[in-house]
Design a protein that fits this description.
830 residues, 7-stranded mixed β-sheet, 30 helices
Length: 830
């Protein structure tokens, strides 16, 4: 059989819009050769992961179509923005994969847009093509397949779209013509640049740079060396990669501000996206994070992708506040990167999108990029026309030197005026000896003194949001304060008050939360709050699973966690003997509610030794009027309750951890902790780490266990929030709130060692009653309390907050104090 060879696919200089005659001629040559492509659409990345990973090993594609790049983008940006994946897998007639077309529907606003998956975050957008795709699928077959794919997408009501917007498409994908560039396209305002590498750096350098330029390079390097030893560092572990990327983001953000360009790292999820890629230990071989150190200064930084035989130069910056930058630290770093790529045996160095002058000096190939835009419904016509006009104007400006210089000048002038305060800062995270703006970012605390004290001890400025009468509201460390009675009520009003505060700050504050209601508030409003605050919080579904005891029981069963047998019930719907549990049992609410406290006081749970005692409690349980949880009792006193505490950063690494045990609670059984001790118990730590890993939990968490008489640990609950334990742990050497603050603000992490064993904490006025009830003589308790290293509220450095809190409680009746929440304008100190 005679095989057609479609010239339009082999000739890189073929026109972007072929004529009808050419299409007809190709159709005649190839109609008998290939029947076309059959598409299957996948709505989730997981469903296509196995085939995608297999296919990208040999397909023609760019680094930006790799599964790891796109799934990481979706995890941090796309899923949050409501992007709907539309992954089309095309197959040849024999069932072999012909191409993968990663696309998405952006449905967050009307009209709905069909575009490349992660289009804005990819310098090149294209399909993944089988190596023989252009030989087996002639142009007319592809164009027909594209129309069929559009119809297939539109046949799903959830995938309807109003316009198509395909940007930044290179003419070539590997060695093949990108078939999508044969659609009606326009030239993208920006181009890209690439250079072919040789086998020897010196030969390459001599070929690219004149003798005079090489002399200037050597002179500049000598000047830079006067500031300290020059080192080119490739990051080989996640911690080093994270620190380097933090410096890069700081440098780029200042450069954006100086030039009047919107800071991409202020967009939701962008920092987390790059941090995930840079610090994921499974992806270290795909990304090259490096820096130039001059003495103690991180003078220049870089984030790149190594994919196939190509080095993709994605992000690079330099410390423009350092005097040495005058001698070209960024240019020095680029030369080291080119030498590094040659040393690794790579064949191409891709400078990616952008027409900066330094790229033109090194590249030997310019890459034209194309855009395709088309309306699919009448709703899409206006936005399509607007998009076409905007691109033409932008290209005209960028391709006209006078216009481009004028626009750049105006933009940078506005930027310098808008960010003048930021640009005058003399500190930078790129210096080890002088961290950037140490502790200038405010920590906004929803909590009491046990959360405030560790942050204040780290010299972090604080604002406090808590109930009237809580001592932290009156602390001298609270630069701003808002009294709020009930965090489960009026959430929209509270949200507006919080956003007003966050937006009024020079830098986004770091938000901390201590109670379940505060955790739920932050989790359920995470999208809005992230616009004005930094914070760590687990995934929304996991938060709901852990806060609700019934959902936690179901999750524990699914993951085979070592929890006591339990059952959810409503006292109206069942009888006591129908619980089908072994006695004794404990009964507790699914979430902490005032209705429970009004009947049972401060006890978190109540105990029933047998069916008769449970029957006697039944009328009170019925009066509560809510679903409850019954759980088989693990025998032992409250001192048998031990806990594991941790902070897991976004990369999945444990940044800080410790274990502890309860000493006393009030009430004595199932009460709130009044005294505790920091421990170092191996099996508690090991089991805690294992459960956190199984949950894929990030952020902070406290896992409570109870040790039965045989020594086995049983998981009671998991609290993914900050707790009173952090006060004692900070004294013991593990300041988890300060670690979180450092990570979210880009400051160096405080030194953290294994927690000192035996550090104790107490809440004296409650613990005194607990000690008396436990039979501890008053004199012995006083002696122990005086020796206690950490005390809630009481602090010689902040003595008046307890006095002011007491005066408030005496002056304001409880019913009027809690009747209404203060209005948003009642921020004090804002």
């Amino acid at each position: 059989m005679k095989r057609a060879t479609p010239l339009a696919y082999r000739n890189a200089d073929a026109p972007a819009e072929p004529g009808q005659a050419a299409i007809a001629r190709l159709a005649d040559l190839s109609r008998e050769f290939s029947p076309g492509v059959n598409f299957v659409i996948h709505r989730t990345l997981e469903s296509v992961e196995e085939e995608w990973r297999r296919f990208e090993q040999f397909a023609d594609c760019t680094a930006f179509q790799s599964f790891d790049w796109l799934t990481t983008w979706y995890r941090h940006i796309g899923s949050v923005d409501g992007v709907i994946p539309v992954i089309a897998v095309g197959a040849f007639a024999n069932g072999e994969t012909a191409l993968i077309v990663p696309m998405a529907i952006h449905s967050d606003r009307a009209p709905r847009r069909l575009c490349w998956f992660a289009q804005e975050q990819c310098d090149y957008n294209a399909p993944l093509l089988s190596p023989d795709f252009s030989r087996r699928i002639p142009l007319d077959r592809f164009l027909a397949a594209w129309q069929e794919l559009r119809a297939l997408i539109k046949s799903d009501p959830q995938l309807r779209y109003d316009w198509i917007d395909l940007e930044k498409m290179p003419r070539l994908v590997g060695t093949q013509i990108n078939p999508f560039t044969h659609l009606p396209v326009t030239v993208n305002p920006s181009g890209a640049h690439l250079t072919q590498l040789g086998d020897d750096w010196e030969k390459f350098y001599f070929a690219k740079r004149s003798s005079a330029t090489r002399r200037r390079d050597r002179a500049k390097r000598r000047h830079i060396s006067e500031f300290g030893e020059i080192r080119f560092v490739t990051c080989t572990d996640p911690a080093e990669a994270k620190r380097t990327l933090e410096a890069l983001i700081d440098q780029k953000s200042r450069a954006f501000a100086r030039r009047g360009i919107p800071d991409i790292f202020q967009r939701r999820g962008f920092k987390e996206f790059f941090f995930d890629l840079a610090t994921n230990p499974n992806l270290l071989h795909l990304f090259h994070i490096s820096r130039i150190e001059v003495g103690d200064t991180l003078a220049a930084t870089n984030f790149a992708i190594v994919f196939g035989d190509c080095y993709y130069h994605v992000l690079a910056s330099y410390d423009d506040t350092a005097a040495m930058s005058h001698y070209g630290t960024g240019a020095l770093h680029l030369r080291e990167l080119l030498a590094y790529a040659i040393g690794r045996g790579l064949r191409r160095f891709d400078f990616t999108i952008g027409d900066e002058p330094y790229k033109l000096e090194w590249s030997d190939c310019s890459i034209e990029l194309f855009d395709h835009s088309a309306a699919a419904t009448w709703h899409g016509w206006p936005i399509n026309l607007s998009s076409l006009a905007r691109r033409r104007i932008k290209r005209f400006i960028k391709q006209t030197p006078i216009a481009w210089r004028l626009v750049s000048y105006v933009r940078s002038t506005i930027g310098s005026l808008t960010h003048s305060g930021d640009l005058k800062s003399e500190h930078s995270v790129t210096s080890r000896s002088a961290p950037t703006k140490p502790h200038q970012t405010v920590a906004c605390i929803m909590g009491d003194m046990d959360l405030l004290q560790p942050l204040a001890a780290a010299q972090i400025p604080c604002a406090v949001v808590t109930r009237p009468g809580v001592p932290s509201l009156y602390s001298r460390h609270a630069r701003a304060r808002l009294a709020w009675e009930d965090f489960s009520q009026n959430s929209e009003v509270l949200l507006n008050a919080m956003l007003r505060f966050g937006r009024a700050q020079r830098e986004r504050p770091v938000l901390f939360y201590q109670e379940d209601a505060q955790l739920s508030f932050v989790s359920r409003h995470r999208e809005q709050l992230s616009e004005a605050f930094h914070f760590v919080v687990p995934e929304a579904s996991l938060v709901e699973d852990l806060v609700d005891k019934a959902r936690f029981a179901a999750l524990a069963k699914h993951l085979d966690l070592p929890v006591p047998t339990s059952r959810q019930f409503h006292p109206v719907a069942v009888e006591p003997h129908e619980l089908d549990l072994r006695f004794p049992v404990i009964i507790k609410p699914l979430i902490r509610l005032d209705r429970w406290n009004n009947i049972f006081g401060l006890r978190k749970a109540i105990e029933a030794r047998d069916t008769e005692s449970l029957r006697a409690l039944w009328p009170q349980l019925t009066d509560v009027g809510i679903d409850l949880l019954a759980q088989e009792l693990i025998p032992g006193a409250e001192t048998q309750v031990e806990s594991y505490h941790c902070y897991v950063d976004n990369s999945g690494s444990t940044a800080g951890e410790f274990t502890g045990r309860k000493i006393r609670t009030y009430p004595l059984s199932y009460g709130h902790t009044t005294a505790l001790e920091i421990t170092d118990i191996a099996d508690v730590r090991g089991l805690g780490r294992d459960i956190v890993k199984r949950l894929s939990l990030t952020g902070v968490a406290k896992l409570d266990f109870k040790r039965d008489p045989a020594g086995k640990l049983h998981l009671l609950e998991i609290n993914p929030r900050f707790t009173l334990w952090h006060n004692a742990a900070a004294v013991a050497g593990v300041n988890i709130p300060a670690l979180v603050y450092a990570d979210l603000t880009g400051a160096p992490r405080p030194k953290t060692d294994r927690a000192t064993i035996g550090v104790c904490w107490c809440k004296p006025w409650n613990d005194f009653r607990a000690a008396l009830g436990s039979g501890v003589p008053p004199a012995e308790w006083v002696t122990w309390t005086l020796r206690c290293e950490s005390k809630s509220v009481l602090s010689w450095r902040d003595p008046m907050q307890a006095v002011r809190s007491t005066l408030h409680r005496l002056q304001t009746p409880r019913d009027s104090a809690g009747a209404k929440n203060l209005k948003p304008r009642d921020w004090i100190g804002l």
